[in-house]
Predict the 3D structure of the following.
Amino acid sequence: MEGGRKAGRPEGGPETGRLLCCRLSATHFGQSRRRVAAAHAARFRPVAGPLLLGQTPYMNILVAGPHPDDQELAMGGTIALLARRGHRVTLLDITDGEPTPHGSPEIRAAEAAAAAAALGVARQAAGLRNREVLYSLAGRHQLAAIYRQLRPDILFLPYPQDAHPDHGQVTRIAEDARFDAKLTRSTIPGEPFYPPRLIYYFCTHLRMNFPASFCVDVSATMEVKMQALRCYDSQFFRGRPAAEQGAVLDYVRNLDAYFGGTIRRPFAEPFYVTEMLGLSGLEEIVL
């Protein structure tokens, strides 16, 4: 049944196997103990797959955003950090973000390309219309085809609770496209694939406390994030009163400083998960 079996590689966890029953005698205790230990280790050997941000082998990561700049505002430091560690990161702009008071499709495209270059990542557009994003089967299948093309190990989406209609609709479409992408005998282009991990970032228009599941220390890449955000001149500087120019960047820096304080680091970015996130070790936990 397609709805019950995920295509692509498994998410991880213990391998299935038969329980081994051993009868231990006093004369063979040491030998039997070694056999049981070896069998236990084989049975619980982790399945290959992405378990830690930054863990090798290198991962394929897709960060979908309703508009150009959403990804950078929420997790630009993490994006830069992942790129520095050798992971393949692609920013997917669901819409071009236009119209806006001081932008145009051409201006926004140039700004988005410059921001991606600053972060050291790739970028592509999905082509949906800004301010008109509606949940639909066609939209789901359009994103599912992109998942099949890029085959991400980790998919980042906006936190679903948001005042901006585009943000909520994009997340709902992208979540269901994840399921659609694995279906066989469909008209969706490409080979079936199921992105193993889904993580939410916070880029919301609501005044709310973020229910973060974990934070990523971005102290080393905070200035790279700021450099990427400054590429969006039409959104954060041009046409604004002098007192408001760059105010969004100041807000983002203060927000990341707050979350950095929660883990005793200068800066951090918060994330949320609904599925269990597995770790293969504790080496990267911030103490």
Remarks:
- Residues 165-180 form the longest helix (16 residues).
